[in-house]
TrEMBL record:
It is found in: Cytoplasm. This is 16S rRNA (cytosine(967)-C(5))-methyltransferase. The active site is at residue 360. Belongs to the class I-like SAM-binding methyltransferase superfamily. RsmB/NOP family. GO terms for biological process: regulation of DNA-templated transcription. Its main location: cytoplasm.
Length: 421
């Protein structure tokens, strides 16, 4: 069962008098749908019901017969398809039509579905009712042109989950044997031996390996950022925006649990997540500090990671709500915050120290433009080429969604070459 089948069944149950939440709950209890399919099923059912009156008017105006007299399943197939066409621009039109036609139980039904939907798609007045493409998608097209469409298409694909093996507790080989013994399937990741891709996170989240700190859930592209930091045993490292602690703990593992990581987080609630992860993984070099990264101060540290708050435009596959929340005003506010964080972080470093800036955004306004503005005002910093530290990247690390089945990320490494004049 997939999301559309679940939505169709739920809507038919609602037509029979069942409560929608009860109908979906029964389906989800019976069929273990992946999180992204469950989310889409919810969106299709609630959205279709919310707009059912206008959807029915559109179908009725296009269908040459009596729409009301059609049976429940056929009506709901058409309703779901029209809802997707009007409101979900992330789903290609050909896929909407093909999926709907496949629900036809006879040649006659399939022909009817195809004819009605094609008629709706050709109708210019109905086309004008479609929700316009999200602002962030337009910006992705502006930045990446033809590749932008591929990036947007990649957001429709279920993200590949990754785990990171905690080498402080055991060797990679030993943990892999433990994984195999539990029946959890894993595969080699793109770049790093301590990362593995897995099929599902549900069983892993509640597994003893997770609870006992042998593994963490961590996207491998985010691990690239930690390798770009290249923290060494005995160093003092600041993680300026630390929650939920994935990069904090990854760096601690790379340091062999030797040295000190000062984990800064403005939110007390989110800092609890950092502390929980640190304790679970058996790490004892992290010093948590609740503070605003724009105003905190320390001197003579070796490295600073600024994993800045961002639009999350590189992880829309995981966070589809992003496309509705991001606009020009939001990006302007974020870029200002990002600059303030990196400018303050620059004051922490000793000469020769490294400042690493990263986001899970793919928009230049939050990435290259922030770095360019920083370097313009901080001539005592210079770019260190990412290719010297990571297997991906040249001047910067830039991973696009869909490129390696990971998150989309950006990261830059800057070296303090002198004291400011």
């Amino acid at each position: 069962m997939n999301a559309r089948t679940a939505a169709l069944k739920a809507l038919c149950d609602v037509d029979e008098g069942m409560n929608l939440k009860e109908a979906l709950g029964k389906i989800f209890e019976k069929d273990d749908l992946p999180d992204d399919e469950r989310s889409l099923a919810n969106e299709l059912t609630f959205g279709t019901l919310r707009h059912q009156e206008e959807i029915d008017e559109i179908v009725d105006s296009t269908y040459s017969g009596d729409f009301v007299s059609l049976d429940s399943q056929l009506k709901n197939v058409l309703r779901i398809a029209v809802y997707q066409y009007l409101f979900l621009d992330r789903i290609p039109i050909y896929a909407i039509v093909n999926e709907a036609v496949n629900f036809g139980r006879s040649m006659k039904e399939r022909g009817l579905i195809n004819a009605v939907l094609r008629g709706i798609i050709r109708n210019q007045k109905i086309q004008a009712l479609r929700i316009p493409r999200a602002w962030v998608f337009k910006k992705i097209i502006d930045a990446y042109h033809v590749d932008g469409e591929k990036i947007i298409d990649s957001f429709k694909i279920r993200p590949t989950p990754y785990i990171r093996i905690n080498r402080l507790k055991s060797s990679v080989d030993n943990v892999m044997r433990k994984l195999a013994a539990t029946g959890l399937e894993y595969r080699k990741a793109n770049w790093f031996n301590e990362f593995k891709s897995v099929n599902r996170l549900g069983t892993i989240i509640n597994s003893p390996l997770m609870k006992d700190g042998y593994i963490s859930i961590h996207d491998e592209a985010q691990g690239l950022v930690c390798h770009l930091v290249a923290p060494q045993p005995g160093e003092t490292v600041v993680d300026l925006c630390a929650a939920p602690g994935s990069k904090t703990t990854c760096m601690a593992e790379l340091m062999g649990n030797s040295g000190m990581i000062i984990a800064i987080e403005i939110s007390e609630v989110r800092m609890k997540m950092v502390v929980e992860n640190v304790l679970r993984l058996g790490i004892n070099i992290v010093r948590p500090v609740i503070a605003d990264g724009r105003h905190y101060h320390i001197e003579c540290v070796d490295k600073v990671l600024v994993d800045a708050p961002c639009s999350n435009s590189g992880v829309i596959a995981k966070r589809p709500e992003v496309k509705e929340r991001v606009n020009a005003k939001v990006i302007k506010r974020l870029a200002r915050l990002q600059y303030e964080l990196i400018a303050n972080a620059a004051t922490f470093l000793k000469v020769g120290g490294a400042l690493i800036y990263s986001t899970c955004s793919i928009l230049p306004q939050e990435n290259e433009e922030v770095i360019e503005a920083f370097l313009e005002n901080h001539r005592h910093f210079a770019v260190e080429h990412a290719k010297e530290f990571t297997p991906v990247g040249d001047t910067y690390v830039k991973v696009l969604p869909g490129e390696y089945h990971t998150d989309g990320i950006f990261a830059a490494r800057l070296k303090k070459v002198a004291e400011p004049s």
